[in-house]
Amino acid sequence: MEELVRSMAEQLLRREAVDGGVIREAAARLQGLVDRLRAFAEETLGDTLPAIAFDPGHPAYQAPPALPVHALERLGTTGGTGYAGNVPPSGLKDAGGGRGPEEAGHGREGGPAAAPAGEAAAPSGPAGPSASPAGGPAGGWAAPGRPVMATGPLGGVSAGELVDAFRSGRLGVEEVTRALLEQIEAVDPHLRAFVTVMAEQALAAARRRDEDLVRWRRAGGEAGGAGAPGPLCGVPVALKDLIDVAGVPTTAGSRVRAGHVAARTATVVRRLEAAGAVIVGKTATHEFAFGATTDTPFHGPVHNPWNPGHSAGGSSGGSGAAVGAGLVPVALGTDTGGSIRIPAAACGTAGLKPTYGRVSRHGTVPLSWSLDHTGPLTRTVADAARVLEVLAGPDPLDPAAVPVPAQGLVEAAVAGATGDLRGVRVGVLAGWAEDRIHPEVERAFREALQWLEAMGAELEPIGGTGRDDADFPAAGVLTLVNRVLALAEGGAYHAATLARQGADYSAEVRIRFELGQFLLARDYLLAQRLRTELARRAAAVMERCHVLVAPTLPIPAPRLGQAAWQPAGADPEPVPEALIRLTAPFNVTGQPALSVPVAVGPSGLPIGLQVVGRIFDEATVLRVGAALEQARGPLGA
Asked: Which contacts of 572-575 are long-range, i.e. CB under 8 A and separated by 24 or more positions?
């Protein structure tokens, strides 16, 4: 222990001249402390949450920031965050080396390493009919090129449309559920979005919903009367495979949890079922949600419905692909650094990360307790509003869940769909939209700004120059803080399992969790203190505007196995770092953030714009998102 402490003092703390007596005494005391802590089997704590909770609505986080932007940017805006390996600046030929299988060609020779300059997401094969997967440990590959979407009258139907049809009796819940299960059976082999299809349970729930609707109609069918159907009555919903349903496997995308069956049902699932939803299955996640591509050895890659040769994003990639392909109108995801918004942008859906604390985390496998959010991926912005109204609210099982009402959200989305944004001040994160952005994304973002202005919104640049104390720092500053928190908290959650089953993790995810074992407490607390300052800075910026806008992703969906991309005039950037760069900041500040598709680029892949609001003001975020949705028209038209 003495030699270890001396080595750490020299190498980690950079203190070369420490008195030998101090080292010996510190080592002896550390040994006693560690022996006591390690004698406790921490896995016996089960799902007990740590007694810390970030409350972004607390007045302490609304105080004026203490540091100017230039002081924060001493952290640097580029470089390692511990999330992905470094790409050699000498060129792209080595960009695929040193990666885990989910981010470097999936462990197969000849996997693509990086896109050429200016081509982050060029189509990876000729257009043609999608083929059935062909063998192999991950189920093979779907042919790249042609989109893979649900067909027929229910393909792409929204939750709101289904609720209206069920209440009026035009459609039956069991009829629709059966048809959607058939679509999943036909289409999902090309996408691999689902890990568990709960057909029997879904059909049983659907029959109960039909019986409830018949009784309600016989009683007069009053909207607010006794027995009135819930706001999601009959709506098929898929769940990211981190969210527990009693008696159903929760694998978290990892061999570590092979054979695990949940003993409880998550709070969000109970609320969905109470609102009348029909749970149809569990969707694929990147291993333990710690990756942005949803490509792991346990399940294989999830394919993008717009082009199966490309990633669906992650970590909620199965939910993004299922909704983007029109298999279900609603799926739940979780978001620690962008894991709802990334697949929403990649797959052309709406994806809403609510304010931190708005939705209970009970019954959901954590990645980072102080960064995790749960929220919906949906066909429309109004559907996201409808789902959030159901999910939101306090929970005695989650100390971070706040008792702030979530009402009027659907009405806000309806108001936005009129295309009237007069009086809404929109802060444009101009610096973020100019730093290593793919040309397709930049063009779509500029066009969306024109739409906002045409609808009456007032645009205000939020620079990133470091000269304005009410300005926002560069995205890389906040992303670094996000990664330190995620690495430390994720590493703590997985410490015992790593010691017991380390070989069952995929290489890259294991490296991330192992890295968390070596962060010092002072590093973690430094990141939490920086978070306080960044939350205050965000509050100051939001006094100048109602929402912020920026691209959701700097690139269109990358090719499967693509390790890096080449921004014009800059060094190659690892794909995992690129995908979280513009989303992870708002998990640090806890603000609500919505990704809404605004275009389909020349590559044939969707482009998303991110709308970020004030704490607990999802209503304005949804209003602006619905206005953009209305201005865009049918996606890809």
From this structure: 572/87, 572/88, 572/89, 572/91, 572/92, 572/95, 572/114, 573/87, 573/436, 574/84, 574/85, 574/86, 574/87, 574/95, 574/103, 575/84, 575/103, 575/292, 575/293
pLDDT, one tens digit per residue, over 486-526 is 999 999 999 989 989 999 999 999 999 988 888 888 888 98
The tokens for 153 are: 């009258």
Q: What is the pLDDT of residues 451-483, one digit of tens each?
A: 999 999 999 999 754 556 568 999 999 999 999
- Amino acid at site 49: L
**Is 603 designated active site?**
no
Is residue 315 flagged as an active site residue? Answer: yes
Left, alpha or beta for 183 (phi > 0: left; psi -120 to 50: alpha)? alpha
Structure tokens at 36: 């006591």
Cβ-proximal residues to 223 (8 Å cutoff; 6+ apart), any chain: none
User: Which of the residues 339, 360, 368, 370 is marked catalytic?
Assistant: 339
Number of Cβ within 10 Å of residue 455's Cβ equals 19
pTM: 0.89
What spatial distance separates the first Cα and last Cα of the chain, rounded to whole Å?
66
Annotated active-site residue in 124, 130, 311, 315: 315
Which of 240, 254, 370, 506 is catalytic? The answer is: 240
